[in-house]
Amino acid sequence: MVQKSYSIAIVGAGAAGLSAAIAFARDGFETVLIGGLDVRRDGRTVALLNGSVRFLKALGVWPAVAPEAAPLETMRIIDDTGSLFRPPPVSFSSREIDLDAFGWNIENATLVEGLAEAARDYEYLTIITEQAKDFRAEANRAIVTLTDGSEIEANLVVAADGRNSQLRRIAGIEAHTWSYPQTALTAILAHNREHREMSTEFHTRHGPFTLVPLPGKRSSLVWVTSPKQAERLAKLDDEALALEIERQAHSSLGAMRIDGPRGLVPMSGLSVDRFGAPRLALVGEAAHVFPPIGAQGLNLGFRDVASLRDAVVDAFDDGREPGSPETLRQYQRSRDLDVRLRTAAVDGLNRTLLTGLLPADLLRGAGLLALSKVGFLRRAVMREGVLPHLGAPRLMQDASAA
Q1: What is the CATH number of the domain that holds 325?
Q2: Is the pLDDT of residue 385 over 80?
Q3: What percent of the chain has a predicted confidence (pLDDT) above 90?
Q4: pLDDT recorded at residue 402
Q5: pLDDT for 144-192, tens place per residue?
Q6: Full domain range(s) for residue 20
Q7: CA-CA distance, 201 to 78, in Å (whole number)?
Q8: pLDDT tens, position by position, 18-75
Q9: pLDDT tens profile 290-305
Q10: Total of domains in the chain
Q11: Is residue 395 part of a domain?
Q12: Is 116 a domain residue?
């Protein structure tokens, strides 16, 4: 039995799903968010790049979470592979592209809590904590069946239900998955020295070892290494693990201590051939999964949401339905190239670290050397990394965009 009809139903209450719910409710679409919150703290943070911060400002969320975030003013890359072709360290300053910061680093759970708090204030947004168990598309609507047996009707359903998306599977959208011989150890650290708003990424033979600023003398760690090494590290007590991290960081931030929970994340990837099906659009990890390299994951998910919002608003302005085929085609066009290019870039960088082959080392080293010496190339890469110049969603162009 249909409980209620909505313009848009979002399934999944993570950061991508919550932001989608707020974005559509903000524009006056009758919206329902389906799913329970997961705010477990596991040492993971997200580096919100400038475009994502603009998006959160437009949604009215940023002022509430900004005090818990630290700016990333400098990004430093150090080749620590032991290769014969090691380039010198390369640093990128946000001021080179006229930004105060490339982005801001914040704990995942803190961001989700802030989005959830903002979502409760919207007149056009209903929140249902039941889980979705089924989906079917009909001629002019979609039906989402909940675990309690009730049904939700919507013109468009947004699947934000993660890498194991049930809606994606039901809709018959094929997902291509792969794994890497790596595991990421995540943790929150306190340290003796100031990080000076600098993110430091050591490229090691097992993957990147990255320290990203948090407020105060604190940083988040993403240590990508072999599964065996990650398991060994995870078994250490806090004092022994902090000492291992300090050694791997070459004591760049002084003595360290563990200042929060830890996590272990197997490294994997996922891509899809299409970002939608009749009455259904995929966003976030339902559409793409990245290893935690280059701050692409959630930033790309927010770009999905902002692009889908543009397609829905354009459809409304043209007298079309949110879930119309043309809306979904516009969304597909807006995401296809962006996602594929970034998937290839992150995958390629990670694999060059793992190969140990001299040609791959030479290519990677030459690339870093070119970035350090060629000014216009550096600036172009920095701008593209923060926010693509062409095709940027409207809410990421200007925090006050309609």
Answers
A1: 3.50.50.60
A2: no
A3: 67
A4: 46
A5: 999 999 999 999 999 999 999 999 999 999 999 999 899 999 999 999 9
A6: 2-69+107-177+269-354
A7: 6
A8: 999 999 999 999 999 999 987 788 888 999 988 899 999 999 999 999 999 999 999 8
A9: 877 656 789 999 999 9
A10: 1
A11: no
A12: yes
332 found inside a domain? yes
pTM of the model: 0.90
Q: Is residue 83 a part of any domain in this protein? A: no
